[in-house]
Write a sequence for this structure.
């Protein structure tokens, strides 16, 4: 139910039947929440430890 891969099945069901499957909204918000969480986590890690630059 909370697997982001479930969204592709929902997309097919939406295109064929005009409506999503049972847990479409939950899966959609879970996936969007994970994207936002991972974005801010990556931002925090890069800010804490910047990428190294090479000096030639």
């Amino acid at each position: 139910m909370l697997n982001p891969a479930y969204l592709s099945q929902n997309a097919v069901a939406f295109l064929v039947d005009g409506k999503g499957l049972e847990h479409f909204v939950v899966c959609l918000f879970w996936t969007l929440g994970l994207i936002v969480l991972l974005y801010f986590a990556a931002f925090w890690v890069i800010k804490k430890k910047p990428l190294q630059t090479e000096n030639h």
Summary: The chain has a mean pLDDT of 82.
